[in-house]
Design goal:
This protein is α+β, with helices and mostly antiparallel strands. The chain is built from 8 helices and 16 strands. The longest helix is centred in the last third of the chain and has 16 residues. The protein binds pyridoxal-5'-phosphate.
C-alpha cells in the first residue's frame, strides 16, 4: 500500500489523502489514467505513458494543470518517497470537481492523483501454464464513439462487464471484439498470436488501445528478427494459432492457451512466446528512468 500519495501538486500521507465527493471522475467517469511499472528502482517507459496521458487529455479537452516535465518529476519524487523498487504506479487525472455533467460547473483545475503499490497481477505459475480466455459478449466502442487511443476511465465500464463474464465462466481473461467482429484486445491487455513463425497482432486502428507493452514487444520482436504483421484477426485466427500471448503493463507478457473451449496450439505456453517473455524481462532490467 502507498504510504504517501501525490494529490494536486503535493505529497501527502495516506491518512490525509482525500478525494472530493464531486470529483468528475467519480461522478461521471470523466477522467484518464495510466498504470506504470517500476522495476529495480527504475520507472519503465515513463515518457511513453506520460505522452499517452497528455495526448488523451488534449483529445478530451482536459486542461492539464502542470506541464509534462513537472508531472514527470512528481512521479519520480513519489516513487522515491514510497520506495517500491519493483511495483506499480497509478496516475489518475479527472476533469476537476463540480456537480453536474456540464464542465462549465467545474471550479478550479483538473485533479491529479498518484499512488504507488507493490503489485503482481497474476500468480507466477500462470506465466508457465498460461491463461484460459473466453470471448466477451459485449463489443468495444467504435472510433466514432471514442477513439481507441484515448485511455479514459469511463470506457472501462465496458471492459469490466467483459471481465465479469470471464470470471463467471472461470476464465482468466476475455477477448474483446470490435463492432465488425474483429479481435482487438482483452480487458486490460493487447493480444498477439504466432502462426507459422509469424508474430501477428491487430492494428491499433481496429479499436484496441495502443499498448506500451505491445509496442515494446513489437520492437523487441523486430530487433530479434521475428517476422511481424499488424493485421486484422478474427476468433478463427486465435483458435488456429500455434501460440498466443497477451501484453500489458500489469500482466507484462503472459501466455494464453485456450479461447472459447478451443486449445491454442499445443495448449501450453509456446517456445516463441517463452523466448519473447525472456527478451521482455531482460529489457525491463536494462531500461527505465531511475528514481
Ligand atoms: C484495454 C487495455 N488494452 C491494452 C492494455 C495494455 O496497455 P499497456 O501495455 O500500455 O499497459 C491496457 C492496459 O493499460 C488496457 O487497459
Amino acid at each position: 500500500m502507498s504510504d504517501m500519495f501525490y494529490i494536486n501538486g503535493g505529497i501527502v500521507k495516506k491518512e490525509e489523502a482525500r478525494v472530493p465527493l464531486y470529483d468528475h471522475g467519480l461522478l461521471y467517469g470523466d477522467g484518464l489514467f495510466e498504470g506504470i511499472r517500476t522495476y529495480n528502482g527504475k520507472v519503465f517507459k515513463l515518457d511513453e505513458h506520460l505522452d499517452r496521458l497528455y495526448y488523451s487529455a488534449a483529445a478530451l479537452m482536459i486542461a492539464m494543470p502542470v506541464a509534462q516535465p513537472v508531472l514527470r518529476d512528481s512521479v519520480l519524487e513519489l516513487c522515491k518517497a514510497n520506495n517500491h523498487l519493483s511495483g506499480y504506479i497509478r496516475l489518475t487525472v479527472t476533469r476537476g470537481t463540480g456537480l453536474g455533467l456540464d464542465p462549465k460547473h467545474i471550479s478550479g483545475t483538473a485533479n491529479i492523483y498518484i499512488s504507488t503499490e507493490q503489485l503482481s497481477l497474476y500468480p507466477a505459475e500462470l506465466y508457465e501454464t498460461g491463461l484460459v480466455m473466453v470471448t466477451a459478449s459485449n463489443r468495444l466502442p467504435p472510433p466514432d464513439v471514442i477513439d481507441p487511443r484515448i485511455k479514459c476511465t469511463g470506457k472501462y465500464t465496458n471492459n469490466i462487464q467483459a471481465k465479469l463474464e470471464a470470471n463467471r465462466k472461470g476464465a482468466g481473461e476475455a477477448v474483446m471484439l470490435n463492432a465488425q467482429g474483429y479481435v482487438c484486445e482483452c480487458t486490460g491487455d493487447n493480444i498477439f498470436v504466432f502462426k507459422d513463425g509469424v508474430l501477428k497482432t491487430p492494428p491499433s486502428h481496429s479499436c484496441g488501445l495502443v499498448g506500451i507493452t505491445r509496442n515494446t514487444v513489437l520492437e523487441l520482436a523486430r530487433k530479434n528478427n521475428f517476422p511481424v504483421e499488424e493485421t486484422l484477426m478474427t476468433q478463427y485466427d486465435v483458435y488456429n494459432a500455434n501460440e498466443c500471448f497477451l501484453t500489458g503493463t500489469g500482466a507484462e507478457v503472459i501466455p494464453a492457451i485456450e479461447l472459447d473451449g478451443r486449445k491454442i496450439g499445443s495448449g501450453r505456453a509456446g517456445a516463441l512466446t517463452t523466448k519473447l517473455i525472456a527478451l521482455f524481462r531482460e529489457h525491463t532490467r536494462e531500461s527505465g528512468v531511475k528514481f
